[in-house]
Amino acid sequence: MSSPAVLSRRDFTVGGLLLAAGLAAGACGGPAGPPAADRTLRIGQYWPPTSLDPAKAGGESQFFLQPAYDPLIYRAADGSYQPRLATAWRYLGTGNTAFELTLRSGVTFSDGTPLTAEGLKTSIEHFRRSAGQAAAFLAPIATMTTPEPLVLRLTLDQPHPLLPTLFTQDFLAGDVISPAGAAAPADLATRTSGAGPYVLLPGETVANDHYTYGPSPKYWNPAGRFYDKITVKVLPNENTALAALKTGQVDVVAGSYAIADGAKAAGFAVAASPAIVMGLQLNDRAGTLSPPLADVRVRQALNFAVDRAKITSALLGEYGIPVDQPSAPGEDGYSAQPFYTHDPGRARQLLADAGHAGGFDLPVVIPSTPAFPGDLAQAIASDLKQIGVTLRIAAKEPATANTALTQYPASSMGWGVLPAYFMGRGLWLKEAIGMNPFHSSDPELERLDRQAAAADAATRPALDKQIVRRVVELGWFLPVCLSPGLLFYRDTVGVDPVPGKPFPSVAAWHPVDRA
């Protein structure tokens, strides 16, 4: 969280990561907020929701979805998977091509519809039709059958090793939508149709400004609901958000390193979860627009030229982690031994060996807002200049930048951290959706991916590490740093983050009495 991110796949959630700079949830005070008797949780969030329909939303919508939608499987704060709307799940046989979910009995959606396997099938079909971020990860499902009223069985036309992960709150597909809601998809954009502890209150909500949630009288586990009301206020200016936290208008703010020092100085708790790998994508690997990029030695030279530690420290301070790979500490694919050290001499030699000793110009498109991608591109440009490569930066409105990827050989990189299986389908396999605009292909990557997809849980981590290593060796990307998502909050709120793990669901936050 999926803090959310900056680009089109922003904050897609979120994975189990090791955090730099100590994930702190200290018992700090902060200015007094509302009285303890006020059982309202007030949250400030930078982005409005793309949609209140989980099938069309992204990570930026998580704070708006988690109160109203219980997931099938709950990813707890410690990273473990726990029963929620599903009480059991398992792969059938070997090869990860058949999967079964057993649902909790007695669950009712907020609209009064009971939870059944047939209804879950309808929800999954809605996700697949909606072509949102989860749709690509549901694509391998070939058939869905209901051998019992509360049992859904999936058969797949290709291996899928991470269905339990996909059906947690982190990946949206686990947010089951009622059959009535799925039957009226246009209405889902502005109302909730989940089986969670809360329901959106339209009369107390103003789209793109604030969203108010009250208790769902149908909720199956009222003891797991900790507030009488939750409000999420859209605060696109971080300084305004920090001011709202200081004055007690909100209890929790999602923000960035830009206000971290101010929040800490004011006595608020600070929790961090690294969320986004930032850098550049070297998309034109066949040299169609920039012939030098067709040579792997050139792409590797660019990676050796960048001083990741210096840039990360300058731009993110204690909250960033230098990375030369698309994975992150704590992920199965991550390698603690860097492949690219900062070595300008080696970079120059590689360029010379490839026939580009005099350097070359490299056009790159980046989003014009927010400021960080531009700051990062300028820092990279400064290092590349030392080896004779001139970065020609074109800053465009974010939506335009995202649709211009085939017009520039390189682009800004901002990926929500995911397991290798998910990253392959969005980033580096030949038919990857979204971030492989020239449909680059590598036979070794494709082979390793097929092998890992069918592997059991004990075998797959080693294969994931080989996959990520191959991506790094190919030099298709120029990652620089892992940028965190941050929460700043009062000591009256129990967020209960766990170091090295994604944030707990909003629905799990609870009041803390200050005795």
Account of the protein in words:
It is built from 16 helices and 19 strands. By secondary structure, it is of the alpha+beta class. The strands form four sheets. Strands 1, 8, 9, 10, 11, 12, 13, 14, 15, 16 and 17 form an eleven-stranded mixed sheet that branches. It has a four-stranded antiparallel sheet with strand order 4-5-7-6, covered by helices on one side. The protein has a two-stranded antiparallel sheet with strand order 2-3. Strand 4 (86-91) and strand 5 form a beta hairpin. The longest helix is centred in the C-terminal third of the chain and has 15 residues, at 460-474. It is globular, with a radius of gyration of 23 Å. The relative contact order is 0.19.
Q: What structural class do helix, strand and pairing data support?
A: alpha+beta
Number of strands: 19
Uncertain runs = 1-36
The DSSP helix count reads 16
The proportion of strand residues reads 15-25%
Mean pLDDT: 90
**Major sheet description:** 11 strands, mixed
Rg from Cα: 23 Å
How far do the termini sit from each other?
Answer: 32 Å
Helix content: 25-40%
Globular, elongated, flat, extended or rod-shaped: what is the shape?
A: globular
